[in-house]
Amino acid sequence: MILVAGSANLDFVVRAPHIPAPGETVLGRDFKTFPGGKGANQAVASARAGGSPTHMLLGLGNDAFASPLESSLQSAGVTMHIVRTPDHPTGTAFICVSDDAENAITVAPGANAELRPEHLPSLAGFTHLLLQLETPLDTVTAYAQAARAKGVQVVLNAAPARPLPAELLALVDVLVVNEGELAVVSGHQGSIAACLERLAVPTVVVTLGHHGSCARHLGGFVLQSAFPITPVDTTGAGDTFCGSLVAALSQGKDLPTALRFASASSALACTRWGAQSSIPDTAEVQALLDASPISDPASESALRSFCGLN
Predict the structure, then answer these.
(1) Residue 124 has pLDDT above 80, yes or no
(2) Which residue segment(s) compose the domain that 186 sits in?
(3) Cis peptide bond prior to 160, omega within 30° of 0
(4) 3-class SS at 42?
(5) Does 178 belong to an annotated binding site?
(6) How does pLDDT run across 8-22, given as a tens digit for each residue?
(7) What does DSSP assign to residue 211?
(8) Which of 5, 42, 130, 252 is the most buried (most CB within 10 A)?
(9) Regarding beta strands 220-225 and 212-217, do their DSSP bridges make them parallel or antiparallel, or are they unpaired?
(10) How far apart (Å, rounded) are the C-alpha atoms in residues 38 and 242?
(11) Does the annotation place 310 within a ligand binding site?
(12) Does 177 fall in a domain?
């Protein structure tokens, strides 16, 4: 079983020609609300990947914004452990998506910031604990400590980016970051490979957008080229990757197989609007995997060069 402990937000999404610069007003077009939040997105991705039951610990306010979040998690098959905070609103995120599928996001944490160490449920029966950084850092560290004490694998998606204390990194089995987060967490501005070598975590995975992904695992490197797609909205793509990766690992898949599954899942998510609404199920992911070559020497060579491994 997988336990995701983290954030749940209602996303307010506006489509616009481009993301506004400071002081600029841009006329948008479509406006929609979607269930989101890094923790909830990852829980939905894990559940839709199938194979392992997924639970989620989350904080919600006593307001109307909580209802669509609960409905989305429930429909995905996620078992919820809700900490209700009547004095704090449900978390929200304000997202602008540009015509080239990039996004800019501002989050108001609300009830997410009220999760405390004592809220962690029993870890009996869980194999993996998946964490992010949209909840208090001391709470994240306490959850990781509890998981380590029970022999539960700790997976940390270090997003939003911030420097992390050595105490927390020492508790992490798998660290997942994007390129910008890797630079912040490693404290280094060199190549992908050089940044990865500076992190004393057994497995570090870095997602690289249209380039693919790269992992340093027990001293070696694993590369996964991106699946070619035409992106519509990249919101939630990284969360889809994280949830799908943990689901695959919990089923006993090796890291190269898990990376390929997660990459296919996140690629499909980029072809649809929204965060949780864009996450594919395992049948869709498998169809893409079956239709795609396992290896492409030219793409792999380009990815190695991009990561500084040549």
Answers:
(1) yes
(2) 2-8+36-91+111-307
(3) yes
(4) helix
(5) yes
(6) 999 999 999 999 989
(7) G
(8) 42
(9) antiparallel
(10) 10
(11) no
(12) yes
Answer whether residue 187 is part of any domain. Answer: yes
Cα angle: 62, vertex 87, 69; to 5 degrees: 30
93-121: pLDDT as tens digits: 998 989 888 888 898 999 999 999 999 99
The answer to whether 274 is annotated as binding is yes
**CATH number of the structural domain spanning residue 165:** 3.40.1190.20
> Whole-prediction pTM value?
0.93
pLDDT band at 24; cut points 50, 70, 90? very high
Inside any domain, residue 54? yes
Query: 135 versus 310: which is more confidently predicted?
Result: 135
- 8 A C-beta contact, residue 243 and residue 4: yes
Report yes or no on 30 lying in a domain: no
Residues recorded for the chain = 310
Residue 51 annotated as binding? no
What pLDDT is attached to residue 116?
A: 97
Q: Distance (Å, rounded) from C-alpha 62 to C-alpha 90? A: 7
103 annotated as ligand-binding? no
pLDDT value of position 48:
95
φ, ψ of residue 293 to 5 degrees: the values are: -65, 145
Q: What's the total number of domains in the chain?
A: 1
Tell me how far apart the alpha carbons of residues 47 and 39 are, in angstroms, rounded to a whole number.
12
Nearest to 4 by CA among 197, 242, 202, 294: 242
Asked whether residue 180 carries a pLDDT value surpassing 80, the answer given is yes
Q: Is 272 annotated as a binding residue?
A: yes
> Active-site positions?
239
- 28 in a labelled binding site: no
